[in-house]
Amino acid sequence: MSSRIAQIRLVSSHSEVYEPCDDSFALVDALLADRKNLLEHKPTLCMEVGCGSGYVITSLMLMLGEEANGAQFIATDINHHAVRVTQETMEAHRVHAELINTDIASGLENRLAGLVDLLVVNPPYVPTPEEEVGREGIASAWAGGENGRSVIDRILLVALKLLSKRGWLYMVTLTANNPSQICRQMRKKGYDSRIIVQRSTEEESLHIIKFWKDFDIEVDAKDVVLNSNAAPAGVMDSVLSQLHRLSFWRSSDVNSSRSGK
Fold first, then answer.
1. Domain Methyltransferase small, which positions (predicted)?
2. Are strands 98-101 and 205-213 parallel, antiparallel or unpaired?
3. Per-position DSSP letters for 107-158, written without gaps between them
């Protein structure tokens, strides 16, 4: 199994680039846990936003391997040092991706709109003062603003534009980010979700969440809009709350059967 992920000793580094840590390992473990489904999914365009050291995107390329059938890979980072370090990490593992120094997907949204089948993100999720968000260097890897959601919410908006109709999104979240609210927010956009990996460390509790388009939800959402005038606000809130709890907390087996995963 170790040959299917990046080797730490071959991961490049720089003082201004975030090194692989618990969140990076949890995200790669989630992708490994879902590897069979990923291979069956056969993504044609895979993308990582915020590539950092290159550990995650390199691991993704290695675990998909030749079975990816010529899939293309793109990775972005706002930190130019991270782009260079990721390039070095990939070269050490003899894999290749298109690397772009940009903020999330700035300048790429029109080119990639509706084309990304697999999007992976380990966002800046640490709650910080808003003025720390977007700073140059390594701080850009963790400074997430109020509740750690400033950058996450921006990424979700971009993800909705980039993901194809069969696109999957894997995202790292922290308990402080209110992951259940994120899932409800995405559900309103027609995306179902489930936790692939949940891991607690001494400092934080991490959730790796997978999102995918559920067209049944999309139909339900339209029905809610059409019938909202006929239902009291309290009833509608209750229905949405129940839908959310079912989506976020139900067992993985039920989610797998609905999504074909």
1. 45-130
2. unpaired
3. TTHHHHTTTEEEEEE----B---GGGTT-SGGGGGTB--GGG-HHHHHHHHH
Query: Domain map of the chain by residue range?
Result: 2-259
Bridge pairing between strands 163-174 and 98-101: unpaired
Q: Is residue 143 within 8 Å of 135, Cβ to Cβ?
A: yes
Question: Is residue 201 within 8 Å of residue 171, measured between CB atoms?
Answer: no
Distance (Å, rounded) from C-alpha 120 to C-alpha 74? 11
- pLDDT for the residue 3: 64
Between the two ends of the chain, the Cα-to-Cα distance in Å is 21
SS3 sequence of 237-255: HHHHHHHHHHHHHCCHHHH
Residue 155: its pLDDT value, please?
A: 97
Kindly report the pTM of this predicted structure.
0.82
- CA 183 to CA 196: how far, in whole Å? 13
pLDDT digits (tens, 9 = 90+) for 95-134: 999 999 999 999 999 999 999 999 999 999 999 998 888 8
Q: Which residues of the chain have pLDDT under 70?
A: 1-3, 218-261
Is 2-259 a domain of CATH 2.60.40.10? no
